[in-house]
Amino acid sequence: MKIIKTIALLLICNLSFSQTVSQDTTSTRNQQRNAAQNILNGTVSKGITLGGYAEIHYNQPEGDNGIMDVHRLVVLMGYKFNDKVQFITEIEYEHVKELYIEQAFLNYSLNDNINLRGGLMLVPMGIVNEYHEPTTFNGVERPNVDKSIVPST
């Protein structure tokens, strides 16, 4: 009898904190997109799209001098040839001494759900790699798993 009362109490507690599923969970309005996806899904009908961002890190260890690092300066460029063909490139200047081409690919859209891409692209592995802009991860530095284990940008 004691077990039945305990199970009933747990079920009541569980149901009292349950929530209904809202329609917004299936919406794509608030999904995260990286910069290349923003250019690909942009409203520009044809021509050049330019964008960019910079990221500066400042770490202040206790009892030591702070360290500032201009982590990256990124220039994004896209060219939309027509509604089906786009070219995207991302050039990154890191730590005031290294220049990289982070992405450079041609995208051909077969329909709304199928694209063909060729070129230099980000590997969609892990959360931080594909969404690596400063506004899409929490904290100053990337998590250790994403820096050391997962192949990342």
Contiguous low-pLDDT stretches (5 residues minimum) are none
Q: How many domains?
A: 1
Report the end-to-end length measured between terminal Cα atoms. 59 Å
Averaged pLDDT: 78
Chain oligomer state: single chain
Characteristics:
alpha+beta, 5-stranded antiparallel sheet, 4 helices, 20% helix
Structure description:
It is a single chain. This protein is α+β, with helices and mostly antiparallel strands and 153 residues long. The protein has one domain (33-148). Helices cover 20% and strands 36% of the residues. It has 4 helices and 5 strands; from the N terminus they run ααβββββαα. The protein has helices at 2-16, 35-40, 127-130, 144-148, and strands at 47-59, 67-80, 85-94, 98-109, 115-120. It has a 5-stranded antiparallel β-sheet. A hairpin with a 7-residue loop joins strand 1 and strand 2. The radius of gyration is 22 Å and the shape is flat.
